[in-house]
Design a protein that fits this description.
The chain is α/β, with parallel strands linked by helices and about 375 residues long. About 40% of the residues lie in helices and about 20% in strands.
């Protein structure tokens, strides 16, 4: 099978580029595959972070993608379709996470569809976390130009079926990310210049309001938690005004309890942040699935997640961590239980068995199955 993979690849950075690289390498074990990516992914005016590009060594950099698609320039849509068709693929894979990409990716898919190429999209979201009035129109256009879909949580399936009740899809959880070998907590704390005598939890990833960091900061002010030798690491770049969170630190009187690392975390540093932590906390207000949970599994870390989207599908409550309502008392209660009742060792042991279901080879097999079904 010849596969064209059109999505975010190096030199772009972030979890989507890393996901694409990992799936690319799994697929190339059995198939001929070529990567295509953007000449311009977002206009700088619309990008909320500091840069779209990887700086230094990145785990996704060994995929050499042809840069051809400019999301802002419709004249490149046909050029991209032509470049992909020159490769003569049987299948084109895309990744869909926000309606902004629907015009460009959807138009390329439409042109390939007319030439008999099977289009399969891996869906992070169908309906985005931060919704706009035009989302449904754009997503409908994208969905109708694809033959099949991989959804990574049940709520994404539910959203997909509102656009196409007869969609050809498979539900498969997000596979694990590999960011290298874990190190000891002592080594990790030293690398990050953290106090070796403190215990640490980790909030990881881009900081946006829907991720609920403010709920976690307020939970850190709970007297039961403040009285412990417990700190929070916040590791990720602000994708909105950081002053909101810095004011929360002062408002709750927890400046000394939170270690803020608000630059983009390069791939080769990820293992130190996860290795330093006793537990990874995701206090999200909304979610579909999360790559952060899959990094936590890779490093055998217990998790505290909120009961939104597909997070509860990935984190069995009371086995590898906690699934709680997205509110401050519930988050604080779980943190207190974790430390008071010394849950870490049992949760770690359970992550080591639970993570066996999050493998890249079965994800690739799901795509192969969709292709066969679409061709039938």
């Amino acid at each position: 099978m010849r596969i064209a993979y059109l999505s975010t690849f190096y030199p772009y950075r972030g979890g989507i580029a890393q996901f694409n690289a990992a799936l690319f390498h799994e697929l190339e074990k059995k198939h001929e595959i070529k990567a295509f990516t953007f000449t311009r992914q977002y206009p700088e005016l619309l990008f909320p972070g500091k840069t779209q590009y990887a700086e230094g060594k990145d785990s996704a950099e060994d995929v050499k993608a042809e840069r051809v698609l400019d999301t802002v320039n419709p004249f490149t849509y046909g050029k991209t379709a032509k470049a992909i068709l020159a490769f003569k693929p049987d299948i084109m894979i895309t990744k869909y996470w926000m309606p902004y990409f629907a015009p460009s990716l959807g138009t390329v898919a439409k042109r390939l569809k007319k030439q008999g190429v099977i289009n399969i999209s891996v869906l992070d979201n169908v309906i985005p976390h931060e919704q706009k009035f035009y989302d449904k129109t754009l997503t409908k256009y994208f969905v109708k130009n694809n033959h099949a879909f991989v959804a990574m949580s049940q709520n994404v399936v539910d959203d997909l079926l509102t656009f196409n009740p007869n969609a050809n899809y498979v539900l498969h959880p997000h596979p694990m990310f590999d960011f290298g070998q874990k190190v000891s907590k002592e080594e990790a704390k030293a690398k990050l210049s953290l106090n070796p005598n403190d215990s640490y939890m980790l909030f990881f990833g881009f900081i946006r309001r829907y991720k609920g960091l403010d709920l976690l900061l307020e939970a850190m002010a709970d007297a039961r938690i403040k009285n412990k030798n417990l700190k929070l690491i916040v590791a990720g770049e602000y994708y909105e005004d950081g002053a909101f969170y810095e004011n929360k630190l002062k408002e709750f009187g927890i400046e000394a309890s939170v270690s803020m690392h608000t630059n983009y975390i390069p791939s080769d540093m990820v293992r130190y942040y996860f290795s330093a932590a006793d537990m990874v906390v995701q206090p999200y207000r909304t979610a579909t699935q999360s790559g952060v949970t899959q990094i936590a599994y890779h490093f055998d870390k217990p998790m505290l997640v909120t009961d939104v989207g597909g997070l509860a599908e990935i984190v069995p409550n009371g086995k590898v961590g906690y699934v709680v309502p997205p509110n401050v008392p519930a988050i604080a209660d779980a943190i207190n239980d974790f430390y008071e009742n010394k849950r870490e060792a049992s949760f770690v042991a359970n992550t080591q068995s639970e993570k066996k279901r999050f493998q890249w080879d079965s994800f690739a097999a799901a795509i192969e199955g969709l292709y066969k079904k679409a061709k039938a």
